């Protein structure tokens, strides 16, 4: 009797051999929380001299909201998170993630746009056009 994981791998590998990749690549980043209580972790570090629970995690800003306060003045509120960013490039036809780069949460998206495109070109995948959101715009 064939074990379930072997059967699953056999079916998946057969399907992957027939996967069609289109030339449209979408590139975006996803914010991932570290799942650390930063207040308690800070106390643990200060009182017990222990290292942080997740030393690679940093504070980042997910987005900025512009609102009006009670007096009608414009106020900017930043929604922050403690963790990482995963910069992904799924192929629009297959839906498979073809490139993944994990960075600090405070990393600007713009410089991380070319590496996935270069990787795709390096393995002979057609890449044209590339779509990305405004976070990848360097302002030039």
Index terms:
single chain, 140 residues, alpha+beta, five-stranded mixed β-sheet
Q: Please report the number of helical segments.
A: 3
Proportion of residues in helical segments = 10-25%
**Total domain count:** 1
Query: What value does the Rg take, in angstroms?
Result: 21 Å
Query: How would a crystallographer describe the biggest sheet?
Result: 5 strands, mixed
Order of helices and strands: HEHEEEHE
Name the structural class: alpha+beta
Number of strands: 5
Strand content: 25-35%
What is the distance, rounded to the nearest whole angstrom, between the alpha carbons of the first and last residues? Answer: 61 Å
Task: Reconstruct the topology from this structure.
Layout: H1 4-17, E1 25-33, H2 38-48, E2 58-68, E3 74-90, E4 97-104, H3 114-122, E5 130-132
Parallel strand pairs: 1-5
Antiparallel strand pairs: 1-3, 2-3, 3-4
How would you describe this structure to a colleague?
- The mean pLDDT is 79.
- The protein starts with a helix and ends in an 8-residue tail after the last strand.
- The protein has helices at 4-17, 38-48, 114-122; strands spanning 25-33, 58-68, 74-90, 97-104, 130-132.
- The chain has one domain (23-136).
- 24% of the residues lie in helices and 34% in strands.
- The protein contains three helices and five strands, in the order αβαβββαβ.
- The longest helix has 14 residues, at 4-17.
- A hairpin with a 6-residue loop joins strand 3 and strand 4.
- The chain is flat and about 55 Å long.
- With 140 residues, the protein is α+β, with helices and mostly antiparallel strands.
- Strands 1, 2, 3, 4 and 5 form a five-stranded mixed sheet that branches.
């Amino acid at each position: 009797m064939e074990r379930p994981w072997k059967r699953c791998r056999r079916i998946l590998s057969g399907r992957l051999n027939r996967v069609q990749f289109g030339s449209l690549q979408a590139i975006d980043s996803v914010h991932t929380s570290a799942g650390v209580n930063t207040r308690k972790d800070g106390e643990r570090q200060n009182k017990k001299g222990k290292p942080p629970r997740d030393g690679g995690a940093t504070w980042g800003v997910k987005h900025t909201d512009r609102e009006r306060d009670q007096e009608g003045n414009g106020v900017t509120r930043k929604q922050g998170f403690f963790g990482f960013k995963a910069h992904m490039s799924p192929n629009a036809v297959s839906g498979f993630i073809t490139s993944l780069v994990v960075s600090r949460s405070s990393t600007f998206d713009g410089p991380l746009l070319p590496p996935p495109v270069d990787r795709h070109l390096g393995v002979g995948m057609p890449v044209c056009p590339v779509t990305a959101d405004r976070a990848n715009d360097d302002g030039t």
